[in-house]
Amino acid sequence: MNRGRFAVIGLGQFGRAIAKSLAKKGADVLAIDTDPEVVNNISDHVAYAVVMDGSDKKALLSNDINDFDAVIVTIGQDFEQLLMCTVVLMELKVPRIIARAAGKNSRLILEKMGVKEILSPEDEVGVIVAERLTNPGLASYLQLPDEYRVAEIKTPPNLVGRTLEQINTRDNYNISLITIKAEEELEGQSNAPGVHHIKGVPVSSTVLQDNDFLIVFGKDKDIQKFIEINQ
Q1: Angle at which helices 79-91 and 104-113 cross, to 10°
Q2: What pTM does this model have?
Q3: Residue among 74, 22, 73 nearest 48 (CA)
């Protein structure tokens, strides 16, 4: 099943990760870079890999760039080249352009150019790392608008051995428990990292274990309070 057609221009670590992930999901991916070795290394992972200048209008047209659902410009080291490439794509009226910003100034320039979708991987990773360092109980999270988030939390010590009915996250903490991710030890390998499985829809009689992770939804402050109270 085809999951769309996407072009990725700039095959640094970030661009390669996007291209490979899209391809794994069943998308047709055109990977573009000026470095032949980089292009050769990714050629087995995507539908098409081309050595070319992403700001070359004729070369882009020859690869039917307007037929792609989106073009992601992930050039990381040369911001001038990223701008040139983005400008050419806009001139060609590519329907959806997603560009990488290396910082606030880069983002501001891209916004002034009229780019609607901007990626800031360094900033986003920095926020996530800081969040996890200051809150060790938080394994991962998805930030949503209006201060809401979906968070994955290691079961706080005070809740181990208690049932979901006893904890009552909705009434006591104003957060909703979506599901539980449990770690299952590998047979004969008690010291090895286990495999995680989703338990499905939780029931009130479920007893929380030390190696469980809770997937919850709620406001940032309520989730934080839930973690702090039960440490």
Answers
A1: 20
A2: 0.68
A3: 22
